[in-house]
Amino acid sequence: MIDYRGMHALLERAVRAPFAAVARRVRSGRGSSEPAHIRAHLRWAIRNVSFTVAQGEVLGIVGQNGAGKSVLLKILSRITRPTEGRARLRGSVSTLLEAGTGFHPELTGRENIRLSGAILGMSKQQIEHRMEEIIAFAEIDEFLDTPIKHYSSGMVLRLGFSVSAHLEADIMLIDEVLTVGDENFQRRCIDKMRSVVGSGRTVLFVSHDLDAVKLICHRAILIRNGGIELDGPPDQVVAAHLGGGR
After folding, report:
1. 194 near 114, Cβ under 8 Å?
2. Domains of the chain
3. What would the mean pLDDT of 110-123 be, rounded to a whole number?
4. DSSP conformational letter for 218
5. For residues 8 and 107, what is the distance between their CA atoms, to the nearest angstrom?
6. How far is CA 14 from CA 9, 27, 78, 80, 162, in A?
7. How many C-alpha atoms does 108 have within 13 Å on its Cβ side?
8. Taking residues 67-93, what's their average pLDDT?
9. Average pLDDT value over all residues in the chain
10. Quick check: 111 pLDDT over 90?
11. pLDDT for 184-231, tens place per residue?
12. d(CA 41, CA 18)
């Protein structure tokens, strides 16, 4: 019997502990260990970013590579702590940022599904009720009882999206999931996201697939040089993004 919630708490402490003291020094402006010539070239990944998202809204986030989109989602998912400011989320959060995020590599696909559900506060019965849907959508049934360290990155991301979409989180944070899989899987992802929104859940969706942003999202923001350049209807934001170069 695996104590998934206890395992999650141990993993979280192990990941955060080495960085806690450094984060406190950075926030206070003291104790930076970088030489002066390195500090002179440091820049903010994102700064002065402020926005709200309503329940049931799908917010698209677009911008060039390195603009700060993924950093923003990592802050919202509490993987990265902000140097200053704060992020407030009301409700449970399911995150799909990159291959393996939130999964334990030594656990099987089935065990990671159960771990993800436990982290979201779901009961064993609720998780098992969703299990077959998750497996079928991810198309990994032959490898379900194999540790995910043996999965390809595409398999991990397919499982990650399926877990995020089918478990009962109030908020989904998704980064570039549509780069994974064939055209059929990408189309099923879009259809599933639209059904998720219909159930009243909130989605923040980072993507370079601008057609998908226009199709799925109610609203979009353009991130440029670490700040929000435009917040508005997806068509307008995508046009501004293309006008400024990808």
Report:
1. no
2. 1-42 (no CATH), 45-243 (3.40.50.300)
3. 86
4. S
5. 12
6. 9, 21, 15, 14, 27
7. 11
8. 88
9. 81
10. yes
11. 888 888 888 888 877 888 999 998 889 989 988 999 999 998 999 999
12. 24
Residue 10: alpha-carbon gap to chain centroid: 21
Closest CA to 224 of 24, 10, 47: 47
Residues counted in the chain: 246
* Lookup: tokens for 70: 């993924």
Structure tokens given for 187: 């189309």
Tokens of 25: 């020094």
Beta bridge partners of 14: none
Query: Which of 146, 168, 159 has the alpha carbon at shortest distance from 100?
Result: 159
* CA terminus-to-terminus distance, the chain: 49
For the cut 50, the answer to whether the pLDDT of residue 239 exceeds it is yes
CA 217 to chain centroid: 16
Which residue type does 60 have?
A: G
What local confidence, expressed as pLDDT, does residue 41 receive? Answer: 62
Q: Is the pLDDT of residue 97 over 90?
A: no
Taking alpha carbons only, the member of 169, 210, 170, 166 closest to residue 189 is 166
Phi and psi angles of residue 81, each rounded to the nearest 5 degrees, phi first? -90, 135
Q: Provide the token pair at 137.
A: 């959508």
Give dist(CA 34, CA 169) in Å, integer.
40
Backbone angles phi, psi at 216, to 5 degrees: -95, -40
- CA atoms of 89 and 13, how far apart (whole Å): 21
Q: Give the residue from 137, 187, 182 showing the smallest Cα distance to 164.
A: 137
Helix locations, the chain, DSSP H: 4-28, 36-39, 69-76, 109-119, 124-138, 153-166, 183-198, 210-216, 234-243
**What region, left, alpha or beta, does residue 89 occupy, with left being phi > 0 and alpha being psi -120 to 50 degrees?**
beta
Name the amino acid, one letter, at 19.
Answer: F
* Tokens found for residue 97: 């940022």
